[in-house]
Fold this sequence. Notes:
Layout (H helix, E strand, L loop, with lengths): L88 H5 L8 E3 L7 E14 L2 E20 L62 E23 L2 E14 L21 E2 L6 E10 L9 H6 L2 E10 L3 E2 L10 H4 L48 H4 L20 E2 L3 E13 L5 E9 L6 E2 L52 E2 L4 E9 L1
Parallel strand pairs: 1-4
Antiparallel strand pairs: 2-3, 3-4, 4-5, 5-6, 5-7, 7-8, 8-11, 9-10, 11-12, 12-15, 13-14
Pfam families: OMP_b-brl_4
Protein name: TonB-dependent transporter Oar-like beta-barrel domain-containing protein
InterPro entries: Oar-like_b-barrel
Amino acid sequence: MYYDRGELSAYFSPGYAAGEVLGGPFGVNQAPPFVNSQLCPQSSITEYYNGYIPTCDPNVANLAYPWGKTLGPAPSGNASDINQFLPNAYQVMNGAIPFSMGVYDRKNTLPYSMDYTLDVQWQPRGDLAIEIGYVGNLDRHQVIPLPFNQPNIATPGNPIRGQNYTYGYTVVQPNFTPINLPDGTPFLSTYEGGNNDLRVPYMGYSAEAEDYKTVGIGAYNALQVHIDKLMSHGFETSISYTFSRATDDQSAMGLFYNGDNPNNVQSGYGLSDFDRTHVLNFSYAYNLPNFYTWDTLKGKLTNGWSLNGITVLQSGQPFSVIDYSGAVGSIFYSVFDGITNPIVPLAPGCTAKSATTGASGAFGNPALKSSCFTVPLLHPGDLNGAIPAGDVYETNFLVSGERNIFRQAPQRRADISLAKLTSFGDHGSLRYTFDVFNLTNTTSFDITGNNVTQNAFYNNFPVAGTPALPTNNCTSNPSGQNNGFYTCPAGLGITLHTIGSPRQIQMSLHYDF
Length: 513
């Protein structure tokens, strides 16, 4: 049996036959003594089984096709043996595909958190309780996905594998022939753009090879206030308010690194994705008094009414503006950044507050000003001469952190229920409810459009002489004629989705006997 969610089932085995064949997860394998023969399942698409079942794969075994026609030799135990499968500098220069991989760092330590609270409770009277508390948390050794093979900076004074310059784009002439670098050699175009694959720390591995490291930190601090009024005179309520701040290097363990430069994890320290500054919620219940006895018709009609509800008011969640089209960090990943979410920097003179319009972004008016965002351009000669003459299109990561400096619109919702309980003595009771969800029909908007593409077509072959920045006005005419290589951040600040539902009304009738 070869494990692939169950589609490729041929054999079952009680365990992993150690040393005889590369086993799959959960003891899945295809080797004696549990298996006496191997076969290719009949299928109209024979390629479907290639790479899963050795005897079905017509290719010679390599990293791309690890099985091949026959069973390969047993592993030698020498980690350096993998080098024979990796492309060398000459092969990479001619377009060879580097090997992409992800690992969990062997030096990782166990993540942990330290929690602490301080509460003060006061009960001024029998039906009223007040609690004020501080809640704190410190996280250490959070797991963060980091590209461990991010290209280094090559300069004429510090060349890397014969590369005197640093570039992720291949600047070409109008006939698409690469122009020459100052050292007389032409611009290269490796598999991951420019000369990126020749500047990596570990030759043959992809620039996007990933290492999950326990290097992140986080903190949470909150003031919490809670008031409980117990049932008296038919009324009870509970009110809770939280004023908090959550910060970290990375929120949750995902595939992408969400900070600035992954070589400087602390540069991405900022508000957590789930941070909400203010959260206020209160619930209530009011039982109307009984005006008549239950054995009368008036009593059955007017007694047993109650009103219940809950209301939640909360701040929106933080977000960043990102662009992985090469408009940020091209000298590291060109237009092939599939491993980080590069943050688009604010333009000079703009702040997080001045970059917002005050609109929700849901009705045609964007929530963010496109003119307040720019491309972190590098100029020829920057980085100690790393950027070659003629290449005005390269971009860097942010120097200072601007992660999660924006916040979505606040959210509010009120639900209410009117109920009537009618008792028929020992014979049973009838309960009727009239429920209204989202009483005010208030729309709660999702995060606005924050993923922009300033290199509209992911073009990594700019034509020499083309202006780098947009030639149209990104404030008054963002969709106008543009002769520049980069474009205005179209779609920025437009809200396309809502959270929750519109007003809904339901009624129910329940009889107990």
